[in-house]
Every structure is written in C-alpha cells, then in structure tokens.
Target: Kinesin-like protein
Amino acid sequence: MERPASQLENMRPSGLKPPSRLPAMLSGGARTLSETSQSDLNARSGRDGHMGPPSTAKHKPSGLPEPPTKRKTLAERAGETPSSRSHLPKTGIAGARANGYRNTSNTSTSSSGSSIRPGSRGTGLRQIARQQQAAAAEPSMEIDEEAESGVMGKRKAWDTKGRLEDMESLYAMLRTQFASAADSKTVLEESLSVYKSRVQELTQLNRDLTTSSKTITSDLERARSDLHTTTNDMRQAKRDHEREMQDLERRHEKETHEINAKHEKQLQKLEREGERAVEGLEKEIKQAREEMEKQKRDEIADLTSQHWEELDEVKSRHADEIAKLQGEIDELRRSDEGRAAESADQVQALKDNITSLQTQLEAGNATMNSLRKQLTSVESQSASLEQEKQSLISKAHFLEGNQEAQSLEFTNMSEKLAEAVAAKEATIETLRREEMLRRKLNATILELKGNIRVFVRTRPLLGDEEDPAKVEYPDLDSLEGTKEMVVHAPTTRSATGKERNEKHSYAFDRVFTAGTPNRSVFEECQELVQSVIDGYNVSILSYGQTGSGKTFGMSGVDGIIPSSISHLLSEIRRLKEKGWDYVVEASFVEVYNEMINDLLGDAKSWDTEDESANTRSKKKDKHEVHHDPITGKTTVSNLTARALWPPPKDDSSWPPPVAEAAAEASDASNVDEATAYTTKAVDQLLDTAAKNRRVAATKSNERSSRSHSIFMLTLKGSCAATGESSEGVLNLVDLAGSERLKQSGAEGSRLKETAAINKSLSSLGDVIAALGSGKGEAHVPYRNSKLTYLLQSSLGGTAANGKSSRTLMMLHLSPLAAHWQESRSSLLFGSKVHGTHIGTAKKR
Ligand SMILES: Nc1ncnc2c1ncn2[C@@H]1O[C@H](COP(=O)(O)OP(=O)(O)OP(=O)(O)O)[C@@H](O)[C@H]1O
Model:
C-alpha cells in the first residue's frame, strides 16, 4: 500500500529526505524545460545560492527586458516624435540593471531564509516581474528628459548638421548599447545553457532520489513485513512457550502427585511391615511367655512334687519321732519320779524340735503360696498337715501338762477353728460384695458409654491391592483412644476442569486404624461381653460391604466369637470361686430371604418353600421366634442348642473330640482340659455352620455374603450361697454385605435376596432410630424384618419386664478408594445409629 510521502519521511530509518524542492518544482505543473521562464530560473538561482553558476555573478544580465515587440529601425525611430521615441537610458540602464540585480539578490536573500512554500516562491516571481517592468519604464523617462533638456532641445530646427551629429552620436551610443545588449544576450544564453545542464543534473538527481526513495520504501516495506513476520513468530513462540510451560507445570503437578502417592504407599507399606513386625514380635513374645509359663508350671510341678516329698519326709520323720517319743514317754511313765525332770528336758528339746519343724512347714507353705496361689489342693493338704502338726503339738502338750491344761488347749484350738471359719465366711461375703460392686460399676460404665455403641474398623490392603482411600485420624494419639476419622473422596474434576477434593469427618465411640489386630479390637468389646455374665442381653453386629472383613473380625483367629468364648470361660472360672455356677449354651442361625435356618442343623432342608407361592400362603417357618412378655426371653423353635459349659458327660455325639478332658472337666483341678473342650467345641460349631452354608450355596451363590448369621450364646448363672441368679444372651451377628445392588438389574432369586437384605438392613436402622426416639417399645417396628424380630430383646431396647439390652455396631470398611461410595454409605448408616441415644440399660 502506498503511503503519503510525509508518512514515509517519518519512517525513514536513515533519515534521508528527498530534496524538498524537487516536489515543488515538479508540482509547478507540466511545464517543460524550455517553458521555464527566466524569472523562474533567476528566482531559483537566487534561492539556491550554491546551485547557481558562479559566472552569473560576474556576468550579470543587463537587466534589459527582451523587447516585447519588433524593434524599429533607426530611420523609423528618427521619424518619431520625442514623446513616442524609444526610451533609451543613459545612466538609468546601469542603475536599472543594478537595481534589478539588487532586487533579485534581495529576493534571493529573503527567499533563502524563508521556507520552500510555493506561495512564497510565487510572490518572489511576481516581485521580479514588477521590478523588470519598473526598470523598463525608468530609462524611457530618462531618455525623454535628456532628449528634451539636452540634445534635442539645444539644436535649432534648421541646424541639420548639428542634428545629424546628434543623430550620429545617438546612433553610436545605440550601437554601443546594442553591442552590450548582444554581449548580455550571449551571457544570458550561456547562463541558460548552464541552467539547462543544471536542470538536467537536478532532473537526474530527482530521478536518482526517486529511485532511491522507491528502494528505501520497498526496503521499508520489506523491513515492515519482516517485522510483522518476526512479531508473529515471536507471538507464536511466546504462545508455544506458554503452552510448553503449562504442559511442564501439568507434568510437574502429576509427577508431584505420583511421588506423593508413591510416598504414601511406601509409608503405608512400611506401616504394614511395621505392624507385621510388631505382630511377629507379639507372637514371639506370646510364645516366649507361653514357654516361660510352661517352664514355670514345670518348675512349680517340680517344686510341688519336691515339696510333697519333703512333706512326706517330714511326716515320716514326725511319725518316727512321735513313735520314738511315745516309746520314751511310755518308758518315762514306767520310770521313777526321779527321772521326770530329765524327761521334761527331753520333752522341751522335742518341743523345740517340733517348733523348728513348724517353722520349716510355714516356710514351705510360704514358698508354696508365693509359687502358686491357685494350688488350693496343695494348700488344703498343707492345712491337714498343719492339723497333724497341731495334734502333735497338743499331744506333746498333753504329755507335758496335766489334764486341765490339755482341755484348755483343746478349747483354745476349737475357738481358733471357729474364728477361722468365721473369717472365711467374712472373706466370702466381702468377695461377694466386691463382685456386686464390680457388676454395678461395669453397668454404670456401660450406661455412661451408651447402650448403643458404634465402632469403625478398616481392614488393611490385601495382597496386590493398591490405591487406598485417604483417611486421617485427627485424635490418633488421644489417651482415650481414637474416635474420629476424616475420609477423603477420590479427587474429581468439575465441568470446568477444576479439581474437587471432597472430605467427610466422622466421630464414633471408637475408630480402629487399618491393621489393628482382632485381639486389640476385642479388648474394647470385653466390657460389653462381660455384662452378659452379669445378666444383660447384648448384640454385637458386624456391618459392611462384602469383603470388608466382617467374617474375619467375627469368626477369624482371635475374632469376637472365639475371644468372647475364651473371656466368658475365664470369668466363669473366676466366679466359681465366689460361689457362682454357670451353664452356657450355643446356637447358630442364618437369616436368609427372611427365613431362619439352623446352621447346626441339616442344610438339605433349607430354602424349601415354593418360589411361586405367595407370601401369605407360604408354609409356616420351621423355626418360629417367640418372645416371652414376662421374662423378656426370646426362643426359637426347633433350634439346635449345644452345651458348651460345663462340658456334658453323657452325650455320645457331643462333646466332640476331647472326650476324656471333658469328662474330667467338672473337676475344678482340670479347668484347662475343660477350656480346651469348650474351645474345640466352638471351633466345631463354626465348622459345621460353614459346611452347612457351603451345602446351601449350591442353591444360591455367595451364601455367606447374602445372608445374616447369628451366633447365640445363652449364659445362665446361679449362686447357691446367696440364691441369686442371672441370665444373659450374647448375639454375635455377621450381617449380609451392605452393598446396594440395583434391584432393577437383579432377577429371580437374586432379586429376592437383594430385596430381603435391603429390607432387613433398613429395618435394623429404623428399629434403632425408633428406640432412640424415646416413644417406647410399642412404636419400635421389630416385626418389619425377621432379623430385627429375632434380635428384639438385645437391640438396646427395654423388654416388658424392664430388662434392657445393649448393642455394639461394628462398621467394617474396605481401605480401597474404589470402594469409597460403599464405605461412605456404611459410615452414614453408622452415624445414624451413633446419633441415637437410648436410656439406661436395666437388668432383671
Ligand atoms: N483386619 C484384617 N486383617 C487382615 N486380613 C483381613 C482383615 N479383614 C479382612 N481380611 C481379609 O479380607 C478378606 C475378606 O474378608 P472377609 O471374608 O472377612 O469379608 P466379609 O466382609 O466377611 O465378606 P463377606 O460378606 O463376603 O463374607 C479375607 O481374605 C480376610 O482374610
């Protein structure tokens, strides 16, 4: 695109400007060089002093204007009147010339200082023209004056000769003037040719400059387009750079994220390894402890047998000495009075001897007590030895003293015996009071903690499982135990690409970190299990999606079922010393499709109802649930109940393998065998249940995940001494997987299963919510599902007889981020249950 010259001028990098006068000259119109007027040339040469030919200063033109008309001949001129004659200057020519030159110079001077505006130049040309006209007019006036006052005026008309002379002189003068005019013309022509060549030069210069201008313009255009291209390139490079930077940033963020995730994984791995190491160490410690205990037991046994041997030795020595004494006494009796004193000395020596023996016995007893307090049989035998010793002493006394003293001694001994019996009674009474106090305290503690409690447990990552959900435990170091958890949802992105990091905080009665072993979990449940012994009904329910660890926590090694049995057995043994006797029975049932099945019965008879029959016409359950409104007891008809304690002696099919041990179990000295029996019996119960479920699974897959199992323990206790009695039920429930299967996608048996599971789990939530509303038992919808109806008396409510119960909901979570939604719905269920407060539990 062509730009105006003024703009181009401004952009000229070199600062080169086209000669300012050239456009002016060119703009003067389409005049050719021949058309250029003398005045133009004069004006130009005047304005541009250095461009003018130096010769023009020397050979100034005469200043005479070219005759506008044809010159007259001399004869013609001679015939003219003086007024009409030519105006020939005398001195005025030079003056006019000088004037004209001066004027031109003046114009030039003034023009050179002025700008190159065409207007000003035009003014200069007009001035020059005016001056030339004035110069042309002036000489004519001078000639006329001269002619009148000088030459022509002095001659008389008749003086032809004089007038001829005048004419001759005038002619000569004119010739001179003509000659000078010719010179002047030559000079002017020379000047013109100089000007012409100068004009050519200038034209050439103009052309060169135009070409140069064009070149520069095209250079400029090129430079501008280069600049444009460079700017575009730079912008593109900038954009590329920005894009690269963004990519780099994204990559960097991703890498950081990956590194963080890797670190976390490593940390967790290390934690897991640490936990495994701790577990291994614990196992080793346990083994070492067991070995030490065994060693101790062996040592105790050795010491005991040694002690027995010593006692036997002492006894035989006593017997020998007694026999010897008896002989000596007899001899003494037979001897005379004189030897009585000697005998008395001997008796004294014997007495000393007996005292030292007594000291030995006491020391032996002290050693024995310190070694094993539980060896009550040994103590009782020691007591009989003590009695023997006392009788020996009394015999010695008898020998020593008279009849009266002997009877006094006897009375003292009887009193001491009565005192000992009274002390024993008082001790038993204190123990009973202590036991009652303990039960009350335990009840108070549990009441304070609430009748419905919720624990959360996350299982560790298994095998090659990866990508755990992020969980934080804000009060991990709390001395009261961890109760809070913050679960982070997997990072998502909004429609605008913004990162969304959701997290949810929860608080429960207890939160267990991933990897907490079963044993530690049970320690927190122990108080609740203990309260069953005290006569409360308790339910512990494992809730969570399939694979979250419900079965592992309930029936696995050190799980709640085996640990509860072992804890209850040790408590039963402890209470035996305080006068309490317990009977323990176990049943194991499954609730599947709203039907109760006996897991210890025959699996082949399960799931027999006609699928097509409607619910009302369905035949009655084989196992009916019945609640006694007076006792508050729940019974299920046709249910197998296995005696776990005391081990039965008369059932040939039951007890299972440790028959001999069981037979001896009623003997207090064989508690270990009895415990072994019960433990084995429980293992066998669990095996039988698992086997039955496997058989049933041929009809319905994944039976264990799709049904609820309930291990029911009934503990009946009585204290003959006080006439007190108690009955508590412990229900250990492994619920069906809580994952919500879409009913729309399920068909046939799976649809029915899903409906039954959803119904029973939501009924469970509703029942607990209703119990928490405080509207009373009448408003609790126990009957909405078989599960809640079966557990009615142990879900935290209060039975008609005023007996109330306790519940522990154990939420099991998968650690995987992929299972986040299921974990969240479990946590929401737990929060709903945890928010429910149910009043104080009462025992009847
Ligand atoms: N705390 C844990 N420590 C180690 N392994 C565990 C733990 N919890 C669960 N597991 C393992 O996870 C797997 C699934 O556990 P489990 O069978 O108990 O889940 P579940 O919830 O009972 O499933 P389902 O509902 O199908 O019966 C098992 O292999 C189990 O050994």
